[in-house]
Amino acid sequence: MTDSTDDPQRQRKIPRLRKTEPRALPPLNSLRAFDAAARHQGFASAGAELNVSPGAISRQVKLLEEVLGVELFRRAAQGVQLTEPGQRLASLTDSAFEILAQALPQSAPRGPLSCQVSASFYLRWLLPRYQAFRAALPQLKINLDVTSTADALQQGADLSILYHRLGGDVPDAVTARSERLFFDGSILVCAPSLLGRRKLPLPLSALAKLPLLLNTPDGWDWRALAAACDLRPLPLSRAARFDIDDGAIQAALAGQGIAFAERRFVSDLLAQGQLVRPFDLPSASFGEYRLHWRGPVARRPALAQLRHWLRDEVAKQRP
């Protein structure tokens, strides 16, 4: 019997470590802190993911900036934003940590991914991209649940795509591993038939005379718009009320009133002329769509693939 260690073929399969000087890399903890802060675009959520304080994340990022000699984040009262060097480094750290995590031995769960998405995101964003999704990830199996509940991960989903109001409370269970897909950019839209021969853009005072369509029972986003644009109190008590964005969008298509809709959800309808923007107002952002996942991404290669596909699709549609 021949010892397998004497077999040249077996020996060639064993990788050799390079005998070099220590790699000139920044501290690993600083890179991990930066990677989390870049994905979350904030220190608080990054700290929650790594089980440290926001101050600890800030100190590690500051150390990394000193080591590299560049500014990685611009700090402001509203949060932090990646600089150009920060964006380049974030792309590298995201890829490097993902490769490392997937290469390590894991006890990966099997079976379809359990995914929950908000109803409007599903109807107006994901469903139109279903064929592209199947073409990009033909082997990926998912069980999809459409919901409007904000605590989806507590119910056992592997991944959730949910809307959160800015400044609102997000359950602790969904903050540990999450990242922003995009800020909303809502605009006022209606069917051309609602306006007749009126010349566009309409004066803002016309809002008080036109039927309004609420995409939430309390009309909180309309109230926020009125406050942001210093509009007179709007006649919300007479408005039609819907539980989700898609209800208001469908009513707008039928010529029933003015809807306040996420621009990504109605971009095709605007391009086709089925909807128009009756007022000269920029888009307003009062919330964000976030991607939440359960457990390390590396334990579910399918989860990592879906996450990257979602991010790539959002980037393609970036205004």
Give an account of the 3D structure.
The protein has 319 residues and is α/β, with parallel strands linked by helices. It has three domains: 80 residues, Arc Repressor Mutant, subunit A, CATH 1.10.10.10; 92 residues, Periplasmic binding protein-like II (D-Maltodextrin-Binding Protein, domain 2); 86 residues, Periplasmic binding protein-like II (D-Maltodextrin-Binding Protein, domain 2), CATH 3.40.190. Helix content is 39%, strand content 17%. It is built from twelve helices and eleven strands. A five-stranded mixed β-sheet has the order 4-3-5-11-6. Helix 2 packs across helix 3, helix 2 crosses helix 4 and helix 3 crosses helix 4. The longest helix is centred in the N-terminal third of the chain and has 20 residues. The protein is globular and about 75 Å long. The N terminus is likely disordered.
Q: Which characteristics define this entry?
A:
319 residues, alpha/beta, Arc Repressor Mutant, subunit A, D-Maltodextrin-Binding Protein, domain 2, 4-stranded mixed beta sheet, 11 strands, 39% helix, disordered N terminus
Brief overview, please?
The chain has 319 residues and is of the alpha/beta class. The protein has helices at 8-12, 28-40, 43-50, 54-68, 84-103, 119-126, 130-136, 192-195, 220-228, 245-253, 263-271, 301-316; strands spanning 73-76, 79-82, 113-118, 142-147, 159-165, 178-183, 186-189, 212-214, 240-241, 258-262, 287-293.
